[in-house]
Amino acid sequence: MRLFIDSANVEQIRHLNEYYPIAGVTTNPSIIVKENRPYLELFRDIREVIGNEKELFIQVIGDTAEEMIEEAKYILHELPGNSVVKIPVTEEGLKAIKLLSAQNVPILATTIYTPLQALMAALAGAKYVAPYVNRIDNLTGNGVKVVAEIAQLFSTYQLPTEIIAASFKNVQQVHDVCLSGSQTVTVGPDLIEKFIAFPATPADVSVFKKEWQKTYGTDKTNLIQS
Ligand code: E4P
Known about the structure:
Blueprint: E1 2-6, H1 10-19, E2 24-26, H2 29-35, H3 39-50, E3 55-59, H4 65-78, E4 83-88, H5 91-102, E5 107-112, H6 115-123, E6 128-131, H7 133-138, H8 143-156, E7 162-165, H9 171-178, E8 184-187, H10 189-194, H11 200-216
Parallel strand pairs: 1-2, 1-8, 2-3, 3-4, 4-5, 5-6, 6-7, 7-8
Helix pairs in contact: 1-3, 4-5, 6-8
């Protein structure tokens, strides 16, 4: 199980990368434009925060396979570190996934709504697939069920492609896909912080401290004895 940050906000990435077990950062064009900055400079700043080992996912915007392939090569040439190219599962995208994967370029097949889209991308050689859980739910589908079926297909056909479930609007969706066979999730900063937000925890911690200080003195704020 790995956790990615679905954001391009450098300060939020810096904070989460310091405090949480973060494997890398995923972006898409909508996430990038929110930062309203030159995008290569933005990618380089994110890279500086997460280091060269963690994966940084960058999505192409071209319409044809040829454009997508050129963009993929440009991204890999311009950016240092471990980059993964995101390509949508359109017909042109599938062609680009096939050709780039054959050249060992790591690809995340994105914008996935159905198990068969994921299966096609995996057969084409994609390293990752990203089913869009909340967007599927919004179309009166069942995002968690789609993830579970993709996991079942990959297991049946022994495909090495990893599922990175994406598009979440609440913690319950993340919880459910983790139990449904998604090896990995990518989640926005606000939701990641909610993973551990449970009011009883800080309340208990506060009681522990008060009891401790009743016995050992209010100046004792930690276990280190002077
Ligand atoms: C992954 O990077 C996807 O692009 C992203 O999770 C989509 O999320 P949204 O449906 O919240 O826009």
